[in-house]
């Protein structure tokens, strides 16, 4: 079945798609396994920080009133009556001109209201007793970190949807999250289509290639934060294919097919969508590669039809599937981040439609530099592994030269961008040569 | 035991440490689990790409010789005698002015030597038979992707030590790596020390704080690519501590202790190193934070003594532990990448020693911008999660202002840097205000 397809803009496709976004649930994950996931709830301080008045330095806890009048000419002598390490508490009385040796982080004794830093105390043993002399006065509260001065109990320290990096893990531990409320990962099924496909462990044979898209998408899903489920390859028979899709939909939150969306003779997907009663949101986008990227919705569930061409499949996933996955994870920045970069080599092709070129990000004296990868046949295969950006060249342009400014989409960045900023944040015309590089 | 400590430069510490680097083994990992690991062997093409002469377009496979003399005035008519989809092979004879309909990616029939693109063939049914007319000649080899033109069998497509991203996974699948030779992860033990520490699930009590460093380091280890093993907290008794360290060393490739390396009264580590017979490589570095970062070696095994202060612990890990882990993983860029950035806010403190400030990376029109995090008490806690760079300010400087150039260390970057480039790639003086920001 060959059908008429009406191309729409990338931004419109994204907007249509996002109307079908859905949010996943929450599960509790041991703190040791929380790195790389997303917070399913706000991270809240369960106590003041500091939890008690504490000493920021090694020194001596004293009563400030006892230092009145201290000077170089009139040093005041304190008797050291005890010591407290971090973690212990000093509850005895501290009287006039008495002091307690205190370690960094330890709680200020009840009867003290200031700390003298170790360096300012001239220590001496007098009759075998530890003493020190002080040559300046201190004020009440000096060198004390007060309870709650860093953070008050109940403060939201990181909102729901935050990517959990090592710093967030430190916060989770500090505030007692032995079990972390994380966003449940969406289950995303992958079905590979294409009669030319062999499985990875099959020997090559004439006319065939190994199925690489399914595994590439599998890794893209992992990078995006989803649980990938490889459901195998389509059969050649329509009814079996239909049943495969129908069965799969009951097992997953989203379904991806790779291949079979080109305008070819052997493409069952349009018919399958029709028989399922799925609404095709779009099946042609004014972009290269990936123009045949198709998305359909059935009972609120999304079916992504990604191209069988590896570059098109890769780009279609990052532009359209990733924001849906990150939204499911409650990420407040579901899209990839866009920035401006200098083009690191010429790209002379015409761009009749928006083009997304896989590229490698480097830097030149603090400026982002984008180098297209895989344009030469001689390195098209090995360069696949170098891609960490997409270079976005707007439709209706041509003749990009080294040194021009281009929009780049950062594939490895975890911070991301909102849908709105992703849509707006483009260089929409060819920017003239501006930068030496 | 309070001991004399002689500070050395960061670069010297790194060099001393790297003399004790070791490389881990290889294990086979299912391709589905390979994302985010490191290649333990070179990734080699097990076949030519393409594996056979194939068509890059939808069109008709023909014998070029039959097109001689074709022109607008003298169109030549071909009879379509069959069709081949991707994955199937056409083995019948193709005679004079005969053609085979061919799909993108399909193998060129044995008797054909060129492809006419679909758009250039004027198709027509003549007496119910499919025919097309051609108005230009083609040359032998036209529109054929020849066997091996992208990649020859035996080519190394990614060297041992490459970080496995989705593009690398696509290559692994293409070349039949159902089981991927990945670098074995080093087992790294973590012991937390400090009498003030509570476990994450313990209720707070006066004078105590929860152990957050161990879990932070746990996540840093995961980010670096290691297998983290939390071995618990030290006891207060020297002999028990000594036994804990001795036992732990037999279970791990590297051992990290957090806390207990400050010049305090309750610090067992120097004595433990001594009793073990471990050689202390350094125990004082001219840097802030993390000046007390200690590394000792015993029978070629490294013991990292990281500070109990969270910032110092974090920085000590990224500067010293990470390169050792990445080297174990055979990564050819074991250190973090350094770049130049514009300082996004003033940093007025003096830097008597090299200072590493946790910061957040942003961008301004294609330029890297580094904003220190956690300098204000009001946000010191929540800002922990924002850190994705370290801002390196050289010792002997002061009064950094917004807009100045600084060296930044990229914490989330997977590409990394060599030891040499990490050591050399610094701005060594305060760069005057140069950038509007």
From TrEMBL, chains A, B:
Belongs to the MoeA family. PANTHER family: GEPHYRIN, MOLYBDOPTERIN BIOSYNTHESIS PROTEIN. Pfam families: MoCF_biosynth, MoeA_C, MoeA_N. Its EC number is 2.10.1.1. This is Molybdopterin molybdenumtransferase. The gene is glp. It is an enzyme of class 2 (transferase). Keywords: Magnesium, Metal-binding, Molybdenum, Molybdenum cofactor biosynthesis, Transferase. It catalyses: adenylyl-molybdopterin + molybdate = Mo-molybdopterin + AMP + H(+). The keyword Magnesium applies. Pathway: Cofactor biosynthesis; molybdopterin biosynthesis. Residues 189-327 form the MoaB/Mog domain. Its cofactor is Mg(2+). InterPro entries: MoaB/Mog-like_dom_sf, MoaB/Mog_dom, MoeA-like, MoeA_C_domain_IV, MoeA_C_domain_IV_sf, MoeA_linker/N, MoeA_linker/N_sf. Catalyzes the insertion of molybdate into adenylated molybdopterin with the concomitant release of AMP.
């Amino acid at each position: 079945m060959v059908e008429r397809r009406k191309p729409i803009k990338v931004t419109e496709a994204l907007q249509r798609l996002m109307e079908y976004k859905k949010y996943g649930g929450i599960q509790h994950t041991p703190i040791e396994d929380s790195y790389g996931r997303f917070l399913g709830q706000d991270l809240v301080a369960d106590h003041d920080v500091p939890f008690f008045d504490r000493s920021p330095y090694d020194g001596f806890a004293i009563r400030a009133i006892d230092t009145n009048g201290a000077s170089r000419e009139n040093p005041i002598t304190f008797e050291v009556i005890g010591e407290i390490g971090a973690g212990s508490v000093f509850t005895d009385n501290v009287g006039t001109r008495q002091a307690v040796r205190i370690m960094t982080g330890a709680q200020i004794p009840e009867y003290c209201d200031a700390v003298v830093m170790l360096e300012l105390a001239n220590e001496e043993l007098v009759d075998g007793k530890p003493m020190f002399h002080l040559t300046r006065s201190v004020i009440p509260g000096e060198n004390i970190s007060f309870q709650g001065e860093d953070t008050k109990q109940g403060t939201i320290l990181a909102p729901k949807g935050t990517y959990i990096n090592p710093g967030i893990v430190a916060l989770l531990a500090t505030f007692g999250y032995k079990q972390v409320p994380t966003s449940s990962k969406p289950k995303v099924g992958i079905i590979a289509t294409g009669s030319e496909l062999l499985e990875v462990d099959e020997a090559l044979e004439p006319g065939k290639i190994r199925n690489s898209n399914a595994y590439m998408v599998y890794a893209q899903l992992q990078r995006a934060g989803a649980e990938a489920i490889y459901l195998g390859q389509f059969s050649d028979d329509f009814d079996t294919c239909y049943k495969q899709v129908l069965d799969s939909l009951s097992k997953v939150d989203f379904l991806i097919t790779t291949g079979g969306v080109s305008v070819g003779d052997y493409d069952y997907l349009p018919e399958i969508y029709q028989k399922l009663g799925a609404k095709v949101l779009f099946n042609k986008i004014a972009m290269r590669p990936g123009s045949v990227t198709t998305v359909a919705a059935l009972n609120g569930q999304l079916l992504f039809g990604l191209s069988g061409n590896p570059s098109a499949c890769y780009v279609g996933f990052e532009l359209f599937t990733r924001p849906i996955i990150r939204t499911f994870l409650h990420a407040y920045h579901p899209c990839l981040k866009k920035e401006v970069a200098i083009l690191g080599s010429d790209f002379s092709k015409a761009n009749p439609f928006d083009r997304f070129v896989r590229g490698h990000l480097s830097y030149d004296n603090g400026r982002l530099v984008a180098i297209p990868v895989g344009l030469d046949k001689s390195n098209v295969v090995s360069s696949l592994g170098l891609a960490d950006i997409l270079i976005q060249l707007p439709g209706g342009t041509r003749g990009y030269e080294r040194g021009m400014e281009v929009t780049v989409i950062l594939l490895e960045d975890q911070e991301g961008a909102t849908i709105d900023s992703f849509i707006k944040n483009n260089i929409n015309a060819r920017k003239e040569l501006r930068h030496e590089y």
